[in-house]
Design goal:
With about 180 residues, the protein is α/β, with parallel strands linked by helices. It has one domain: Rossmann fold (3-Layer(aba) Sandwich). Helices cover about 35% and strands about 20% of the residues. It has five helices and eight strands. The chain has a four-stranded parallel beta sheet with strand order 2-1-5-8, sandwiched between helices. The longest helix is centred in the last third of the chain and has 22 residues. The structure holds iron/sulfur cluster. Iron/sulfur cluster binds next to helix 2.
């Protein structure tokens, strides 16, 4: 019998009320398909790093190559807190054997391509990965990473799952 692969997923996509406004972004069809071949590990970088639910909205600011995670109204810099938590969480996810991440699009923590606000700049918009996903991709360079919008495309969903399964096989070979 095949052992399911292990995929980390934004908790809000699983229907957990982890968003800044106390809501979620449940994606039941995607979750149903993923669950057929994967054990899903929920994670919410913002809630789990201690910011709570609900919480003040935040955004990326500054240098797109090294943006800061800032709250919009009270101007708290959450970058170091998020980095510290992410380092520990990635250790755990590595031990749990994740072979893929499905993370919410456009979140300043989870999004693959997020607008970066730059003071006084009215030129071209700049983008960066969210803080959590940036560190995850640096830590696990070959890890398949997708958002829920990309995975609405059945071909991309199939490709994502095949790449995750391939990585899982490679990892098992390495352990032998
Ligand atoms: S997008 Fe990421 S940080 Fe925001 S609620 Fe969902 S899991 Fe949490």
């Amino acid at each position: 019998m095949n052992t399911p692969i292990t995929i980390g997923i934004s908790a809000c996509l699983l229907g957990q009320n982890t968003r800044y406004d106390g809501g979620n972004l449940n994606a039941p069809l995607l979750v149903k398909v993923l669950s057929q071949s994967a054990t899903l590990i929920p994670l919410c970088p913002e809630a789990e790093c201690g910011l709570g639910v609900p919480r003040e909205p935040m955004r990326l600011e500054g240098d797109p190559e090294n943006p800061r995670l800032m709250t919009v109204t009270t101007r708290s810099d959450l970058t170091d807190r998020m980095r510290a938590w992410t380092t520990l969480r990635l250790n755990t996810l590595g031990r749990e054997g994740i072979v893929g991440l499905v993370l919410k699009a456009r979140s300043p923590s989870c999004g693959k391509r997020v607008a970066v606000h730059r003071a006084g700049d009215d030129g071209e918009p700049a983008y960066s990965p969210g803080l959590f996903i940036r560190l995850a991709m640096e830590r696990f360079p070959g890890l398949p990473v997708a958002n829920e919008e990309e995975l609405r495309d059945p071909d991309r969903l199939t490709d994502f799952l095949q790449r995750s399964a391939g990585l899982d096989r490679d990892n098992q070979e390495d352990r032998r």
